[in-house]
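Title: Request for sanity check on Transcriptional regulator, AraC family prediction

Description:
We are preparing a figure and want to confirm that the structure record we downloaded matches what your pipeline produces today. Could someone re-run it with the sequence below and paste the raw structure tokens into this thread? We only need the token string, no images.
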Amino acid sequence: MLKILDHRPDCPAPHVDPDDHSPAARAELGRVMREQLAAFAEGLAQGTRRLHRPAPAGVARGEGHFHLAPELFLQVSGWTRFGLPHGEVTVGPGEALLMPARLLHHEAVGVAADGEPFRNIVVYADGRVLTCHLAHEHAAGEPGILFLEARQHPQAGRAQAWLADAAAVGDEPHAAEEQQARALVMAVLAGVRRALDDVTSAPSAGEPPLIARLRVLIQNQLGDHELSVRRLAEQSGCSADHLSHRFRLTAGEHLVAYLNRQRMERAAHLLADTDLAVKEVAWACGFASASYFIRTFRAHHGETPVAWRGTHQRQVA
């Protein structure tokens, strides 16, 4: 049974039993997530919620991960400390952070001074699928997915573009740029709520929660050369055989093949959109050696990374 205590506007953090996966529990978590999306939109409009916008930077080596599109973090309660190549940012209750695309970061989370547990909402759109999940502290200092919804919806493309625009505008405090960034984020939150409530949209191609969550886990660890089906299974609370079987039944392809394809798609994006050296692209895509990356890329795309970049690279700003 879902456990919720004192869920009032002045006590926004939902106290839940993470092991309760019943339909009633999921419905309640969905309601809580939507309420928080609305609360953050209203707070941004009124200027009562702070929006952190770390400066974009090139892909760097170090602890953590990055995404090819921006992420939006909404801190419901507790705190999140983001480690970045150029420093740290701590986000407290009621604050939001917009993570630029391709910015390496790692997260540490914790309980607030008043005892409220860590909870945040993460919004991500890759142009095709929009995901929104409620996170909790699944291990000491580490965030984990408590509840996730994904939608194939036109708002995914709009959300990705608006978040990219918001991350790109200047960072002068209380200036027109700040208002522009807030307005764009507010538009994203409205679009997310619309997509989640649109009964005609496809819920991530009808995927079960296990597989939708698995895709997020993969994207968060794609740059780790030690990522494996076994590790993903441990994080998903099942055996490797079961996870592989469920993924093949749902997605129509082997999980290992999907991992490799995601790495190749990331490599293509980085080769086309950045001036990273091939060995740096290999590292960013989870390959322990540049030579293995080159062989894999040639087998997938039919030419070496250097040759592929020569015909596909876009102008790098």
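Thanks, this matches our download. Strands lie at 51-52, 71-77, 79-84, 87-91, 96-99, 106-110, 119-125, 129-139, 142-152.
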